[in-house]
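$ fold --in a.seq
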Amino acid sequence: MLSNVYLFLLKQQQSRRIRRSRQQNFLGWARALLFLGLHPNRSMAAQKKLQGVVAATVTPMTPEGEINLSVIGQYVDYLINEQGVKNVFVNGTTGEGLSLSVQERKQLAEEWVTKGKDKLDYVIIHVGALSLPEARGLAKHAAEIGADGIAVIAPSFFKQVKKDALVAFLRDVASEAPGIPFYYYHIPPLTGIKINAEELLNGIIEQIPTFKGVKFSDKDLLDFGQCVKKNDRGQFVLLYGVDEQLLAALAMGATGAVGSTYNYLGKANNSMLEAFAKGDLSLAQKYQCSTQEVISFFMAQGFGVAETKAIVTLLSGIPMGPPRLPLSSASEEFIASVKPKLESLKNCCYS
């Protein structure tokens, strides 16, 4: 009798082991499919190639400094209809991403993905953070809500960061969103991390199979040129992030651009890209000089995130609100000084 009970229990245990093994094999295949971008909700994101102009979006806020999700739909329509821009970079520098809570960043990401569905071509969510667990959580969330890509800035409190450690950080974050494109957000003027982007590209696909390119927000065209050289097979997307130098970057091999001024200079820059693609360098130069004139004027008045929010508010009619402390609101003097220039943006060749 005891032997029969023992045999019964042994068979039960073996059966559980077989079921567990099958479940583990299934999960393993599922993870592999996700990693290859074959998940039905991720395949299109993995196949689309990001190019052209990408607006680094501001984060709308109430006068009290809370995020204002209610105007994101209007913002999407403004970018498409008034600026001809259908790609966005959410929660980056212009979007005050590192001044927001994790929950706020998730809410904004969800709203942009939801309101941009069937309207925007590409919604990239910046998920970088000083904390690795927070960045991983944001990356996983972005994948779950159907973002078209994620980007990560170098964590910058500790400046003595080595290349291998930075790549390991990026790899860990990317692993939480294995079915969507991953971009490195290179902005050493703000992070203080001096690792060249071209150095980072060495062997990165072996480390991060979903790696698709770089948002290069630096004026170091030598480093950028070396990135272009490493992109001889066109395997990377090289998005230039210094708006007033875009034409120079295009001549060197940039495949697109991400910037704050595309919130209000989108059409002019689209026209510049079209002229450059057609080989009309003279016309492309005209557009670049025109946009440089506008940017130079704004810079002379004192220019930053707060001023960008004020400009977008005045041009679009959508209240973008103040920036979050410790940034200060744009001054009344700035707003008064730029209003005539904004009228030219509405009525002249810049738009």
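$ fold --in b.seq
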Amino acid sequence: MASRLVQKMALKDGKAQCKMMLVVLDSPMGRIEISGCETGIHELSLQKDVMPPNGTKEASITCELCEGPEEMTEPLKQCTAWLSAYFCEPWVTEKLPIPSFHHPVFEQASFTRQVLWTLLRDVKFGETVSYKQLADLAGNSKAARAVGGAMRSNPLPIIIPCHRVICSSGQTGNYTGGNHLKEWLLSHEKLQKEKLAY
């Protein structure tokens, strides 16, 4: 298996930088790059020029590791397992641990961090919430525009489900990976939730 290991050991502000690893998954949404270190996941990057399959037929849903180091850190293992389950067996994600996060947005108290944690904790699989509703949940009912900024700053799409945040009008709104990916994710969750209801 091919391996890309990016090492950064230089000192920054008197602290050693992270020893980064990169893992690439092949998913229905194209390639997903996951960067992380021993401490946690830094970022998920979605492929922007891919068209996911029409519909979400079970047979066409796969998520496989296509590139990564032989020895992965625990957060990377947890992240790849969680994403694989999300696409293939989403009901399992509730039983899996969310990997630890190690991105600057989570290191200091801010409204963005509060919004992202609130979204992760309170908006469940197959549900949606408006920007205004999420602002209310995060403790500032007048900050719907700031919620939009927080969604643009989300370093961990899918895991922190910014695709579940829609406009009050019911329109899906924008998405970092492209609106077609947001619509696919919402459709995937709706279909999987309906299957579980039967």
